[in-house]
Amino acid sequence: MARIAIGDLQGCLAELQALLKDIRFNADRDRLWFVGDLVNRGPDSLGVLRFVRALGANARVVLGNHDLHLLAVAFGSRRKLREDDTLDEILCAADRHALLEWLLMQPLALSEGSELMVHAGVVPQWSAAETLQFAGEVERALRTDPQPLFDAMHGNKPDCWSAALEGSDRLRFIINVLTRLRFCRTDGRIDLKMKGAPGSQAAGWMPWFEVPLRRTRGVRLVTGHWSTLGLVDRADLLALDTGCVWGGRLSAASLDGAERWSQPCATKGKMPLSSHE
């Protein structure tokens, strides 16, 4: 069985299908890991959801911030579509309920062997086991009573982890780390407003994966989310968002070997408003 991780799709179905042809994907032997952000900004988010859901057990998916935004619009009472969203086809589809229920059941973190997959990152205080535990808290809230979670999900505070965090503040912080994180301090304080490439951040901040002695350094993190970071391929980090939806490439990597693939963008997506990710 081959395990292949694939970067942020964001509605880029044509590129995914071309990539899988290049990989020679075989449903009898291969399993695909998707790092989140299946939807939004690209041309065919509905097609991507249908395609990945139809893969069944051949696909492992974690939720990204755009996936959660879609679910918040669908299941929450306060979140509305933004001008730069491309989610209307999903929300109007005849199979909308089945697709959204399937998406709602996907985790925020998953682990297998020496790999831990999340969409964005982890704060240095969390071990791999704690990351899975905290992700599980959000997953249970999503599956039991999603509307209150979605109504309280958005915001950049609190910006530092404490085991004493409770309620919506605790769940919001966990979601922000797992689906939005780029930069933090050595004490784990996060800043979600800085979105540029490493080197563009203010003094005292660093990419989350460069913090010395972070507790997940013993596993390989498989992530997406950070298109200005680009491909990072090293023993402790496989970052796969290479900005396909913005005119870059869709990247994939074997988790068990040295094979790497990429597919150029076919149709550039809808650029975000300056205040949005």
Task: Give a quick summary of the entry.
By secondary structure, the chain is an alpha/beta fold. Helix content is 30%, strand content 17%. The protein has a single domain (2-264), classed as Metallo-dependent phosphatases (Purple Acid Phosphatase, chain A, domain 2, 4-Layer Sandwich).
Tally of helical segments: 8
Helix-strand string: EHEHEHHHEEHHHEEEEEEEE
Global structural class: alpha/beta
Largest sheet: 5 strands, mixed
Beta-strand portion reads 15-25%
Strand line-up of the largest beta sheet: 3-2-1-12-13
Number of domains: 1
Write down the CATH class: Alpha Beta
How many β-strand stretches? 13
CATH architecture descriptor name: 4-Layer Sandwich
Q: Which consecutive residue ranges, at least 5 long each, have pLDDT under 50?
A: none
CATH-assigned homologous superfamily: Metallo-dependent phosphatases
User: What sort of overall outline do the alpha carbons produce when their principal axes are compared?
Assistant: globular
Average pLDDT reading: 95
Q: Under CATH, the topology is which?
A: Purple Acid Phosphatase, chain A, domain 2
Distance between the termini: 35 Å
- The percentage helix is 25-40%
- Kindly provide the radius of gyration, computed on alpha-carbon positions and rounded to a whole number of angstroms: 17 Å
